[in-house]
């Protein structure tokens, strides 16, 4: 048993009246001991559920990110341009069709690099993970080493950090999610993590407003200069079409968040979010969009990709950015980006 870990466990697990928040250094130490399995299984499970009940603070999340930076994988810088980190809940989607895959291809076509990360089917939601949908599009990230992903990133502008292969220390903690039956704070950590050593534009999806506040506090402590928060579909960074998109932008003032409400009907983009019926149907729908065919999914993609093209500085106005997204689809540029990704991942450079 780790006596050092027990001390930290007692702080977060003493109940609603006597539990205490960890310092950044203590949170980093606790995360490090869990990742390295220096804490016992009983201690890890107890910490996860106690930390969820207490709720993590921005300071604690900053410490957890410090430990991830120390022990986790990092793709190396590919230049001075900020890379979009399109984060998504690791336990997947089960109601709405993910937009971030086609969005990423449109961003690549506009010369905006993108990194995603995630794992396989995961508790507690056990929804469809992004890596499954990428494989359906002919891009199998699961078979690549981290150095091969680095090569693909350098060649195409796209990378994917796959937790089972690239971060086995974190993968070893996944089984605890099933055993405790709840998302632990690691699930929040994954929404704000950037596995990239260069300049990044971190996009954080959230459902509950406190998550956004915790993320902002962690970014301020870690001097993260560029980030966007999105009250998105199922906690992802996909903008909704049936309601106002609630967004937050980082500002030069450390404790300030620029708030933006985007009404899709103001841009002719209102409608229903496309349901996720099956991975195969989702892949087929995405391929049709990439081939320039009209559909409800195309409208959702235009709304989502247009926002990120605008946020990435590729258009002066959101209206112009939405039009640019349509051009990149209709001209086949996004399809060409997929073709390059297929070629780069099917014949990767040797390890």
Automatic annotation (TrEMBL):
Keywords: Amino-acid biosynthesis, Aromatic amino acid biosynthesis, Glycosyltransferase, Transferase
Domain Glycosyl transferase family: residue ranges: 94-334
UniProt GO cellular component terms: cytosol
Pfam families: Glycos_trans_3N, Glycos_transf_3
Extent of the signal sequence: none
Entry superkingdom: Bacteria
Protein's UniProt keywords contain Flavoprotein: no
GO molecular function per UniProt: anthranilate phosphoribosyltransferase activity
UniProt protein name: Anthranilate phosphoribosyltransferase family protein
